[in-house]
Amino acid sequence: MTRRRMMGLLAGALAALAATPALAEPSPDQVVDAFEAVLGPLRARPSHTKGTCAAGYFVATPEGARYSVSPVFNGQRVNTLIRFGVGVTSPTGPDTGRTTRGLSIRFETSGGDIWEMANISAPIFGSPTPQVLVDGLLARRPDPATGQPNPQAVAAFVAANPATTNQGRWLAANNPPASWATTPYWGVNAFRFRGADGEVRHARWVFEPRAGVLRLTEEQMRTTPADFLADELRRRVASGPVEFDMVLQFAAAGDDVTNPTVAWPDDRPRATVGRLTVTEVSAGPGGPCDPISFMILDQAPGVEMSDDPTLQARAAAYAVSLTRRSQPR
Ligand code: HEM
């Protein structure tokens, strides 16, 4: 085959790919438009709207330095700005519901590098692709006649996208945490870790609570005040540091590194790569984490993004959300 013919075929294939609707993903503005179609003009984060700022530090283990050449994993103390969140869409939503809790972290190395991440208290996400996230939001738009989502539209969306029920099933089987300090927080998306040996490994991370996992009982879910997590964390941190171990789970051949609605099997190899220590909690609402969107997910060359389309959609959508919520219209 001639080089020109090959280039012609390649151009044709690329044009066909670009024209395939299944591969088209929404723009960052379309993602945030879909949140606004459900919630109205943004005045706060559209996801994990309720939250409390905190601070602390991270120190990598020798395993961390082995698995990532990022300065965050060089074993020195890295300051962190933290936001603990609740997966509700109002700043006064309940702390006791079957939604996720959040742990968002900005790492600030002494050399001036910044790395950010937003983690949730479930190992899986509710949408396999950004388009499905947008379609799910649009299916839940309030009907102007009733002010409520149209149940038929929601049912049709769920029937067409069964993977969107995976996270809800996990949350139904695992009660909400009794404290922000007693739940694991998963990064959910896969990343590529570039190690000191030059190897690149696909991994997902989880922050495991050193205090152990403790969940609300059904009875406590009914009787605990809607607003208890922030004060509970303040009391805990006042009597001693709250700590989490950052643990990597490595993908095996055949594990899907692009679909965040499916967890990898538990027997995959793991490595503890660092410890996060929470030392301070803001006295009240607001604080230094409020005007931040935890979106600097890519910190080349030590931790790079995988091909997961939901991961690739995040940073730009978070930036649009931050811009819109910072300038309420
Ligand atoms: C298609 C993929 C995704 C899109 C479009 C998306 C979109 C957003 C947006 C627009 C925000 C608000 C940002 C802001 O205003 O600062 C947000 C926040 C958040 N998202 Fe996502 N997200 C996606 C995937 C995920 C995944 C996979 C996770 C799980 C780890 C996640 C966890 C969070 C958390 C915890 C927050 C609150 C962060 C904070 O404390 O500020 N998101 N997301």
Q: Helix segment count?
A: 9
CATH topology call: Catalase HpII,  Chain A, domain 1
- Give the overall form: globular
Task: Report on the biggest sheet.
Answer: 10 strands, antiparallel
Please report the first level of CATH classification, the CATH class.
Mainly Beta
Brief account:
The chain has nine helices and ten strands.
Any overview of this molecule?
It is a single chain. By secondary structure, this protein is α+β, with helices and mostly antiparallel strands. It has a single domain (24-298), classed as Catalase HpII,  Chain A, domain 1 (Beta Barrel), CATH 2.40.180. The chain has 9 helices and 10 strands. The chain has helices spanning 3-19, 28-39, 62-67, 130-139, 151-160, 166-173, 218-223, 229-239, 309-326, and strands at 50-60, 78-86, 101-108, 114-120, 185-186, 191-194, 200-209, 242-250, 270-281, 303-305. Strands 1, 2, 3, 4, 5, 6, 7, 8, 9 and 10 form a 10-stranded antiparallel sheet that branches. α2 runs parallel beside α4 (130-139) and α2 (28-39) crosses α9 (309-326). The protein is globular. It starts with a helix and ends with a helix. The chain binds protoporphyrin IX containing FE. Protoporphyrin IX containing FE binds at residues 31-32, 45-48, 51, 83, 85, 102, 104, 118-120, 125, 127, 130, 133, 187-189, 260, 293-294, 310, 313-314, 317-318, 321-322, 325.
Secondary structure layout:
Layout: H1 3-19, H2 28-39, E1 50-60, H3 62-67, E2 78-86, E3 101-108, E4 114-120, H4 130-139, H5 151-160, H6 166-173, E5 185-186, E6 191-194, E7 200-209, H7 218-223, H8 229-239, E8 242-250, E9 270-281, E10 303-305, H9 309-326
Antiparallel strand pairs: 1-2, 1-9, 2-3, 3-4, 5-7, 6-7, 6-10, 7-8, 8-9
Protoporphyrin IX containing FE binds at residues 31-32, 45-48, 51, 83, 85, 102, 104, 118-120, 125, 127, 130, 133, 187-189, 260, 293-294, 310, 313-314, 317-318, 321-322, 325.
